[in-house]
Description:
This protein is mostly helical. The protein contains 7 helices and 2 strands, in the order ααβαβαααα. Helix 2 (about 35-45) packs across helix 3 (about 65-75) and helix 4 runs antiparallel to helix 5.
Amino acid sequence: ISTRENFLDKITLDSGDIREKINRGDSFSTSQPSIQTVDSLLSFLENKYDHVLVLTVSAELSGTYQLISQRIKENQYSSDWIQIIDTKKNSVAQGLLVEAAVELAKSDIDFTELVRKIKEIRSKAFIYVSVPDLTPMIKSGRVPKLLGKITQTVS
């Protein structure tokens, strides 16, 4: 995929497309959403829901948390309406936090209490990741080059 091509997961790109590109040897990476995408989504949600909870992938892995936080502040959305939580996780651990938030929301818990409980659960969640090859993570910058080279040499 050229760095000039942009796709929206499950909207303009699906797992079959990704598999095909991998088989061709294309290299690609993920990216945070654009300012316009975030603003459009927040504007859409504003009049549809009493509360919105955003659970982002770890801020250490992506700029998405910072971007959404900035857009919430810039658009002066009330913290009574929207809260953003840096899950400090990725992958399955983040998904489990989302699942816990959904279950809590179904129980009609107060929004402030829901946010507090998710932060509490987050502090107890851990994830260990094992990958067969760090090269793509080094190329994308998710793993620092020196650390990646040392890790590859040791393993």
